[in-house]
Amino acid sequence: NNRYATLELAERMLEAHKRGYWQATPQGVDRLKTMILDIETWLE
Predict the structure, then answer these.
(1) What per-residue confidence (pLDDT) applies to 11?
(2) Most C-beta atoms within 10 A of its C-beta, which of 12, 19, 25, 38?
(3) What is the tens place of the pLDDT at every residue in 1-36?
């Protein structure tokens, strides 16, 4: 797994949701946010 690529993809998906381009469930958004935080913590 390339964590940098995964982080970039998750951030793009969250941005698309915020802009209204992608409709995610609240659980999906929470999961993306958690994934982003977990990866950022791992990369530090």
Answers:
(1) 97
(2) 38
(3) 699 999 999 999 999 999 999 999 999 999 999 999
Residue 32: closest CA among 4, 13, 5, 18: 13
Write out the two tokens for 5: 């690529």
DSSP 15-43: HHHHHTSS---HHHHHHHHHHHHHHHHHH
The encoded tokens of residue 17 equal 């949701």
- Which single residue is written with the structure tokens 């992608």? 22
Name the one residue in this structure whose structure tokens are 């469930």: 25
Amino acid in position 31: R
